[in-house]
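Researcher: Next sequence.
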Amino acid sequence: MFEKILIANRGEIACRVIKSARKMGIKTVAVYSDADRNALHVKMADEAVHIGPPPANQSYIVIDKIMQAIRQTGAQAVHPGYGFLSENMNFAAALEKEGVVFVGPPSPAIEAMGDKITSKKIAMEAGVSTVPGYMGLIADADEAVKISGQIGYPVMIKASAGGGGKGMRIAWNDAEAREGFQSSKNEAANSFGDDRIFIEKFVTQPRHIEIQVLADQHGNCVYLHERECSIQRRNQKVIEEAPSPFLDEATRKAMGEQACALAKAVGYTSAGTVEFIVDGDRNFYFLEMNTRLQVEHPVTELITGVDLVEQMIRVANGEPLPFRQEDLKINGWAMESRLYAEDPYRGFLPSIGRLTRYRPPVEGKTDGGIVRNDTGVFEGGEISMFYDPMIAKLCTWAPTRAGAIEEMRLALDTFEVEGIGHNLPFCSAVMDHPRFTSGNITTAFIAEEYPDGFQGVTLDTGMLHRVAAAAAAMNRVAEIRRTRISGTMDNHQRRVGDDWVITLQGENLPVTIDADKSGSTVTFADGTALRVESEWVPGDTLARLRVDGTPLVLKVGKVPMGFRLRVRGADLKVLVQSPRQAELNALMPEKLPPDTSKFLLCPMPGLVVKINVAEGEEVQEGQALATVEAMKMENILKAERKGVVKKISAAAGASLRVDDVIMEFE
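Model: Next structure:
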């Protein structure tokens, strides 16, 4: 077995590989850029080598710098993780020339399958059903528009070397094809060092289901069943699960066997994933093969008990697979929520900054299943603008799909993140969405269910009353604590009242509290009574309660006369007032936010790539005004209405903060 492995990656996946290597008794080497000097993967590894400036094209994807780190440390093998150089044939070839083992497939397989254009041609020759498209290289935007028209809109413009949603655009007309081609080309060059683009028909209402394969150097290949990855935003996966709630045994077997046949056709070894789109009649079409470990591999590990990273290392060491296809059963159900540094209330735009609080739920067995959190960050660390916005993968397992969803709900409610915008509220909203819980999902789920973006969750009456009862009981604890402050005047004891008005989500709910040593009974005006039990004390940022015997977890912040409570995707300002306070508060005027309608504000921290207009120019609704790059993604800012540009305050190359003014309109 190898004595030392270098991990040519960063963040969560680097930490994940280190865990398996450590379990196997293998020493690890991390590489890091200036931005990652204090990163978690650097702290976890046995050795660490600095490889350059923050931009990936000056550090993590520079093959020569990785090779220098290998020579410096004497690493015998390299695990590439995902992204960066993981599907780069030149990197695998450079390692082979150096006599260093690549923990992944052989370079010919990467060349055949890692390139999406080549892989589609091979799949077609092998009789695999593929999506209609143009497999040749596309020279410029004019040719992209012409090809798109021939295929028929909508089309998907994709980077040949792409992955993770980078270098990918959907175009519904000529203008979007022209615009999307250039953005995809730019993103592909920045993220992968390869700007080749191809175009295929975009199949509406599909499911994205992928098959995990694992092959050794002795001719053995197995599939570890499927993952459902249909909950996507901007072609980037947000929620994954295993198995799929849609497949039957016959379709699962056919997809698995086809995936293995494709892997064997190119001499594939190591872990890989064959991606399909599946229509409503369970017809499936080959999309691509990812010749690497997938981000969402933990859900497969949870339902099969197989450590995929360990098996990749063992296969690279020449060992045969320790199991056969018939040994790989599906055990229970697993869910994964990707925690992104993106603000769902601002159109999911990237959010960077310091993690002032980062407290994931406790990992391990729970009353109903298992919680697992794969992460690459820590409290006090910084989220950089230079890399992918994903900072953790929260996974749960239970014997059933409903159980795995319930475990995920509680885990998301327990996950504390402060200091940056993040998508935990959105993930919570998905877990409670009737369409998701029914399993009736497609890749259009987010676009269809949240067409105007995510504005938070409106709790139903039952949950609203549970939160109100919890707030009333918590307020009573805080009030009692305030009455016990030392140094008060004699004969001036303050009595805590029993009658309160809870104001939340636009409703006023009068309640009466009857407390005893073990908890409080909160009675509403209609006579409904809820029993609340907890050990919460003022200052705790997480309240674990039982309301009528059912667990309820609230994230807690203090506001005047109440709390800021966050639960199940809802962010609530909850006022707990005496009846007289509520009466007077209702008379207070509401402060309105400032009018920013005449300004184009930078929606996220980022770098201005291009200003598309000039001062004095008249712009039309939907016209591109500026392009801002953040976390390897280009964001085109468009005019919301017709107007005239009065002043431009930013230029290409400028680094902007959230809400910095880019331009002003008359």
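Model: The chain has a mean pLDDT of 92. DSSP finds 17 helices and 40 strands in the chain.
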